[in-house]
Amino acid sequence: MKQKKFGTTGHSVSVIGQGTWYIDHGDRNQAIAALRRGVDLGMTHIDTAEMYGDAELVIAEAIAGRRDETYLVSKVLPSHASRRGTIEACECSLKRLKTDRLDCYLLHWRGNFPLTETVDAFEQLVRSGKIRSWGVSNFDADDLDELLDVAGEGKIACNQVLYHLQERAIEHAVIPWCLKHGVAVVAYSPFGHNDFPRPNSKGGEVLQIVAKRHGASARQVALAFLAREPHLFTIPKASTAEHAAENAAAGDLVLGADEIAALDKAFPRGSKPRSLPML
Ligand code: NAP
């Protein structure tokens, strides 16, 4: 599995990671096996959130004894993102994850607390060693401008945003902004949550052609496309070991410029929406 520099943090992070939203809803042992298989195959970037029910507890069990192999990311809910609330939420996540530190801690989406409060709390958590870096999620370019005014250059590790073949809105302003300021972009819901292009759709047919050339699957091609630039990462969620293994293998798939152009044409990015789409 390829690793890349995660923004300006200096950390090396797996290009393909593991999402965990709803991982606690199915068979627990199967979910644990999937996460373990993913880590075995190098998908060491594990994404979770205080919002994801018992997902943090499932992860704790999956990575028991292997914490140092993983890059753990969790998120504070906007309703908890006051100065004090952020610190308390982080401490609760650490407890559930059975660890003493997060590698990165994110504001899940922008809420009503002033950004200065959340950033102050993040910086305090860095100083106390409870987190190694911090970032945001679902921030549009204008939100990022405001955040940059508060935090300064070099502090925002990543922006985790909705990005899949059928939803490319972030390419208009968010990706260029992040590239300019050295912020990693983490594509969430890379398979469209539950809406992956069907093989007989127009785009699906192009995916199949590219996949066949590489002896890969359509989903692997999609992941390789989403992580095609040095500052792009992605975090598919899989609840079986077979799915995890298929996703991990995409980490070594490199698409040619002609293939990227064909996918670009088959899944047009469309015009810039008024607000950033999110799930
Ligand atoms: P997703 O990763 O786009 O899709 C998950 C679906 O794809 C599941 O039904 C899964 O099935 C299936 N799948 C995975 N690998 C597969 C494979 N190799 N073959 C066939 N099916 C496969 O959806 P997501 O969970 O919405 O997004 C991923 C992660 O991003 C989340 O889990 C979460 O960590 C993060 N996220 C963040 C935000 C945010 O606001 N920051 C919002 C949404 C998501 P199985 O479960 O059966 O394997």
Which secondary structure elements does this structure contain, and how are they paired or packed?
Blueprint: E1 3-5, E2 12-14, H1 28-40, E3 45-47, H2 55-62, E4 71-76, H3 83-97, E5 104-107, H4 115-127, E6 134-137, H5 141-151, E7 156-162, H6 174-180, E8 184-188, H7 202-214, H8 218-226, E9 232-234, H9 241-249, H10 257-266
Parallel strand pairs: 3-4, 4-5, 5-6, 6-7, 7-8, 8-9
Antiparallel strand pairs: 1-2
Helix pairs in contact: 1-2, 1-9, 3-4, 7-8, 7-10
The structure holds NADP nicotinamide-adenine-dinucleotide phosphate.
CATH class (first level) name: Alpha Beta
What is the overall pLDDT average? 97
Along the chain, the helix and strand elements come as EEHEHEHEHEHEHEHHEHH
Structural class: alpha/beta
Domains, number: 1
Radius of gyration using CA atoms only:
18 Å
- CATH superfamily caption: NADP-dependent oxidoreductase domain
- Helix content bin: 25-40%
Bound molecules: NADP nicotinamide-adenine-dinucleotide phosphate
Strand order of the largest sheet: 3-4-5-6-7-8-9
- Cα end-to-end separation: 28 Å
Describe the biggest sheet? 7 strands, parallel
CATH architecture identity: Alpha-Beta Barrel
Number of DSSP-assigned strands: 9
Shape, per Cα inertia axes: globular
**Are there runs of 5+ residues with pLDDT below 50, and where?**
none
CATH topology value: TIM Barrel
Strand content: 5-15%
Helix count? 10
